[in-house]
Every structure is written in structure tokens, then in C-alpha cells.
Design brief:
Blueprint: H1 3-9, E1 12-18, H2 25-34, H3 44-49, H4 56-67, H5 73-89, E2 92-99, H6 101-105, H7 111-129, E3 132-140, H8 145-155, E4 164-168, H9 180-188, E5 192-193, E6 195-197, H10 203-211, E7 218-220, H11 228-236, E8 240-243, H12 245-250, H13 262-268, E9 271-274, H14 279-282, H15 286-297, H16 301-313, H17 319-323
Parallel strand pairs: 1-2, 2-3, 3-4, 4-5, 6-7, 7-8, 8-9
Bound molecules: hypoxanthine and zinc ion.
Zinc ion (ZN) binds next to β1.
Family: Belongs to the metallo-dependent hydrolases superfamily. Adenosine and AMP deaminases family. Adenine deaminase type 2 subfamily.
Active site: 199 (proton donor)
Protein name: Adenine deaminase
């Protein structure tokens, strides 16, 4: 079987996906029309042409703008169901979806509207597409801890729908330690702690995410490679990295896929998974990430299998649920 077919057929889970980052330009226009919103772009092509990023902040500016077309529960439902349909086409059997409530509550959209739309799509996808999903509520790290506490409070009536908390947005200057208390409070409520760390931020931020937030999985984590002791600590704690190859090149975290550290990470004994991050903005869904990183690093079928197996092993599913896939 050729590599592309092998990748397409491989059962896999996606563990690092921002639902707002799955908002395709076509859907931006459709939702803008449905909600009578005037966009500053005249066409899908014009909007796509703006997707050129020098760094994370460049991307975030456009990403938050794009999300402003999401108004009603139906919008959040359509966004999520559309992503889950793409999962079905890629043999993604399980997905752990991040959502950023503050991106919406800041604009006056109710928490309830966001969570109901997303979770109803997940329930329908389980029934119609046989894809399981868990939700990760991510705090925006450029906002204050107090703001994150408000979000935690708003989430409590929907606690049964949310598995974990995450930390995303502008990393530099917003270290994990800024969120120590809200993460402690989140864990008390039963949420599993996760965080983006070491994407643009230094290895010290990964140490903080481990030692202060006590995270159970590291989103990105690329910059751990600058610190041998940190690598050993991550291995000792058996924490996986959710690596996002096309995101890393789009945001210039890595200059070329051929220089991507994914294989080096695997060779060092780190547990790695492949993910799409924000597929509508970074040029490819999950399988495209697999296809391009395989080609660039000449990964073997055994290595691809390992990556897909890790995606289930390091998911937030219960051990019983994982057994189906391992
Ligand atoms: N990094 C940080 N915040 C984000 C990202 C990312 O890659 N995508 C969406 N929010
Ligand atoms: Zn991310």
C-alpha cells in the first residue's frame, strides 16, 4: 500500500484542534451572510490571501477576527459538525476539541450558546459518524487570571460536557504561572489540566506548566529540545507532546518541514502525536499533516503507526475506551 493510502486508512485521534481554527473561509462568508455581518474582505480569495503569518500573534489577530461571525448556537453547531465530517473522511475515530469561550463571551455571546452548539454537534457525530469527542475549555492567556476565573465560573453548569482545561493564545510574556490559581480551582472542579507551552515561549514556560499547573499533556512543546533535563522530566512523567507540523511552518516556529524536530523528538524517547491545530488557516487537515511530515522526514510506516497509536494512548479517554484502539 502506498504511503498516502496507508495514512488515510490509519485509525487515528486528533488531540490538538481549536474548533475556531477549523472555520474555513467559505463558512466565514456563509455565516457572515446568515448573520448580516459586513466583512472587510470581498471574497474568499481575498480572505485567504490574508493568511500569511510571521509569528503566532499575526495569526491570532486574523483568527479572532474570523471567529466574530459565530453568533448563534446553530453557527457553533455547523462549525463543529463540519469539522467532524472532515474527521470521518480521514478515519479520525476520536477527537479532543479545544474551544475558547472568552473569544465569544467578550463579544457578548453567551457561554451557553457556545457550549450547546459545540456539544450537540459532538453528540450527533457520535451517533451518525461514530466519532467520539471530548471538549477542552481553553483560557486565553493574554487576558487576566480574573477573567479566566469568570470563565471557570460560567462553565460550571456545563461541567458534565467538559473534560479538560487548556491555555492558549499569545504565549510570550504570558507564562503558565500567571494562571496557577485558576488551574488549581479548575482541577478541584474535576477538569484535567493541559496547556500550550514551548511553542514560541522558552523551555522555562514548559517547566512552569509541569511544576505549577501540573499538566497532563503538552500542546506543542517544541522548545523542550533546548533543555536536556526537561526532556528527561517529560519522559519520566510520560507526558505526550501534541505536535502540529503545518502550524509550526505557517507560524515560522520551524523554518522548513525538512528541519522539523518531530523525528528527533521520537528518537529521544518523547511521546509524540501529530495534529492540525488550526487546519483552516495552516494549509491542511490532520491527514495532510501526516502526509507532509512523512515526506519531509521520510518517516517509516512503523513510525506513522507509532504516532497514530500514541494519539489514542495519550488521549483523555478512559483505559477501557482506549483498549478498543490499542
Ligand atoms: N497557539 C496558541 N494559541 C492558539 C493557537 C496556537 O497554535 N491556535 C489557536 N490559539
Ligand atoms: Zn494550538
Amino acid at each position: 500500500m502506498n504511503m498516502i493510502n496507508f495514512i488515510n486508512n490509519l485509525p487515528k485521534a486528533e488531540l490538538h484542534l481549536h474548533i475556531e481554527g477549523s472555520l474555513e473561509p467559505e463558512l466565514v462568508f456563509a455565516l457572515a451572510k446568515r448573520n448580516n455581518i459586513k466583512l472587510k474582505y470581498n471574497s474568499v480569495e481575498q480572505l485567504k490571501a490574508a493568511y500569511e503569518f510571521d509569528c503566532l500573534q499575526d495569526f491570532l489577530d486574523i483568527y479572532y477576527q474570523g471567529a466574530s461571525v459565530l453568533i448563534t448556537e446553530a453557527d457553533f453547531y455547523d462549525l463543529t459538525y463540519s469539522y467532524l465530517q472532515k474527521c470521518a473522511a480521514q478515519n479520525i475515530r476520536h477527537t479532543e476539541i479545544m474551544f475558547d469561550p472568552q473569544t465569544h463571551t467578550e463579544r457578548g455571546i453567551a457561554f451557553k450558546t457556545v457550549i450547546n452548539g459545540i456539544s450537540k454537534a459532538c453528540i450527533d457525530a457520535k451517533e451518525k459518524l461514530n466519532i467520539s469527542s471530548l471538549l477542552i475549555m481553553s483560557y486565553l492567556r493574554h487576558l487576566t487570571e480574573e477573567d479566566a476565573f469568570k470563565t471557570l465560573e460560567e462553565s460550571l453548569p456545563y461541567k458534565h460536557l467538559i473534560t479538560a482545561v487548556g491555555l492558549d493564545s499569545s504565549e510570550k510574556g504570558n507564562p503558565p504561572s500567571k494562571f496557577e490559581r485558576v488551574f488549581k480551582a479548575s482541577v478541584k472542579e474535576g477538569y484535567i489540566p493541559l496547556a500550550h507551552a514551548g511553542e514560541e515561549g522558552p523551555s522555562e514556560y514548559i517547566w512552569e506548566a509541569l511544576d505549577i499547573l501540573n499538566i497532563k499533556r503538552i500542546d506543542h512543546g517544541n522548545n523542550c529540545l533546548h533543555d536536556k533535563n526537561l526532556i528527561q522530566e517529560i519522559i519520566k512523567r510520560d507526558l505526550a507532546l501534541t505536535v502540529c507540523p503545518l502550524s509550526n511552518t505557517a507560524l515560522q516556529v520551524v523554518d522548513d518541514l525538512k528541519n522539523h524536530p518531530l523525528k528527533k523528538m521520537m528518537d529521544l524517547g518523547l511521546k509524540v502525536t501529530v495534529n492540525s491545530d488550526d487546519p483552516a488557516y495552516f494549509g491542511g487537515q490532520l491527514n495532510q499533516n501526516f502526509i507532509e511530515i512523512q515526506k519531509a522526514l521520510e518517516l517509516s510506516k512503523r513510525q506513522l503507526y507509532e504516532l497514530a497509536k500514541n494519539s489514542f494512548k495519550y488521549s483523555l479517554l478512559s483505559n477501557n475506551e482506549k483498549q478498543i484502539y490499542l
